Amino acid sequence: MLYKELDLPAIPNDIIPSKEEISNSTTDTIPKHTSFYQTFQVNPELHKWLKDYINLTDEYKAQFQFLTNHIPVHIDYGRTAVLNYLFETGSIDPVYTNFYSKDKNDLLDRTHKIEIPCYKWHVLKTNHLHDVSYIPGTRVALSIWASNINPWFVS
Ligand SMILES: [Fe+2]
C-alpha cells in the first residue's frame, strides 16, 4: 500500500501557526532546501499535542514543509514512509501525488494518482518513486517520520 488515510484526531486550529508564522520560524536544514522545497521546525505547542494525541511511541521527527512548483520524481532520502497532514494544497485546482514504477525499458509508468485532502492524516510510502503535480502557490504540510509509521501499511 502506497497511501493510506488514517482515522486520527484533527489538529486543533489554535495550535496551527499561519503560513507567515511558519516562514518566520527556524528552518530545518535536512533535507537540503531547494527552489521547490523548504522545511521549518515545529512549534512547542504542536509538539506537545502530537505527543498527547498521536500514538508515536518512539523517537520521531516532525517539520513543516513548504512545496511549490513541480516536485520531480524522486525517492525520499533517509525515510521509507511519512505521516503527513496538509493545511493548504497551494492551488485552487486539484494537486496530485503520483506514484510510478519503471517498465522494462526503464521508462516511468504512473501507477497511482492521488488527490490528498487537507486536514486528514495520511501515510505515504516514500521509498517508492513519486512526484507532486504543479503547485502554483505554496503547499503547507506537517511531515512526520518515525520508526513506528511502517506498521500502518500492513493492514
Ligand atoms: Fe517525497
Average pLDDT, all residues: 89
Helical run tally: 2
Give the total of domains.
Answer: 1
CATH architecture: Sandwich
Runs in which pLDDT lies below 50 for 5 or more consecutive residues are none
Largest sheet, described in full? 8 strands, antiparallel
The name CATH uses for the topology is: Jelly Rolls
Estimated share of beta-strand residues = 35-45%
Assembly category: single chain
**Can you tell me the CATH superfamily?**
Jelly Rolls
Kindly provide the name of the CATH class: Mainly Beta
Spatial extent as radius of gyration: 15 Å
Instruction: Give the ligands present.
Output: fe (ii) ion
The helix fraction, in percent, is: 10-25%
**SSE order:** EHEHEEEEEE
Helical/strand content category: mainly beta
Which key phrases capture this entry?
single chain, mainly beta, Jelly Rolls, 2 helices, 8 strands, 42% strand, globular, binds fe (ii) ion
Give me a quick take on this structure:
This protein is mainly β and 155 residues long. It has helices at 19-24, 44-53, and strands at 3-5, 37-41, 60-74, 81-88, 97-102, 108-114, 122-125, 130-146. It is globular and about 50 Å long.
Descriptive report:
The structure is a single chain. With 155 residues, the protein is mostly beta strands. It has one domain (3-149): Sandwich (Jelly Rolls), CATH 2.60.120. The protein has 2 helices and 8 strands, in the order βαβαββββββ. It has helices spanning 19-24, 44-53; strands at residues 3-5, 37-41, 60-74, 81-88, 97-102, 108-114, 122-125, 130-146. Strands 1, 2, 3, 4, 5, 6, 7 and 8 form an 8-stranded antiparallel sheet that branches. A hairpin with a 5-residue loop joins strand 5 (97-102) and strand 6 (108-114). The longest helix is centred in the first third of the chain and has 10 residues, at 44-53. The radius of gyration is 15 Å and the shape is globular. It starts with a strand and ends in a 9-residue tail after the last strand. The structure holds fe (ii) ion. The site of fe (ii) ion has 4 residues, from loops.
